[in-house]
Amino acid sequence: TSAYGQEPVIYSTQEPYEQVKENLEFAITNQGLLIRGIMKIGEMLDNTRKDLGYEPVLLRGDAFDFCSAQHTYAMIAADPRNIVNCPFTVVVYVTLEQPELVYLAYRVPQLLGSNGAQVSAAIAEMLDTIARDTIAE
After folding, report:
1. Among the listed residues 105, 72, 90, the one whose alpha carbon sits nearest the alpha carbon of residue 29
2. Distance between CA atoms of 42 and 63, rounded to whole angstroms?
3. Is 8:110 a contact under the CB 8 Å cutoff?
4. How much is the pTM?
5. DSSP string for 10-31
6. What is the pLDDT of residues 71-130, one digit of tens each?
């Protein structure tokens, strides 16, 4: 079974892209979490699309990876195989089809172990708090 059996949770806003990225960074760090990296997915696709023959799909796209020691420990204590779900990722992107909207999305892992559902619910709450804090007006 897939750890990511659920559909992604997706929010949208009309705030400027750079503002949403900055808000996301603050929302993550305000939870006491450390951003481990920002993957520039949009740039990577743009830089390789001509060589690979891809049509453009995104105007912009970045993935923020971060960890929570508390949630990571709870996941792994529930079942060591849950380590595959770390780090957590929230993405920000703009599509060609809707350039006026900035999307924010994440997935909640479905965890293994007897209390996996409980730990997953706590992770979902953390991710949703981050998302809502990011797009709060």
Report:
1. 90
2. 9
3. no
4. 0.91
5. EEEE-S-HHHHHHHHHHHHHHT
6. 999 999 999 999 999 999 999 999 999 999 999 999 999 999 999 999 999 999 999 999
Determine the Cα–Cα distance for residues 133 and 116; give it in Å rounded to an integer. 26
Parallel, antiparallel, or unpaired: how do β-strands 9-13 and 58-67 relate? unpaired
Tokens (6 digits) for 58:
């995104």
Q: Residues 40-69, buried b or exposed e (16+ Cβ, 10 A)?
A: ebbeeebeeeeeeeeeeebbbbbbbbbebe
Neighbours of 108 (CB within 10 A): 22
Cα(35)–Cα(7) distance, integer angstroms: 24
Instruction: Please state, in angstroms and rounded to a whole number, the distance separating the CA atoms of residues 10 and 52.
Output: 28
Identify residue 129 by its one-letter amino acid code: T
Homologous superfamily of domain range 9-135: TT1751-like domain (3.30.310.70)
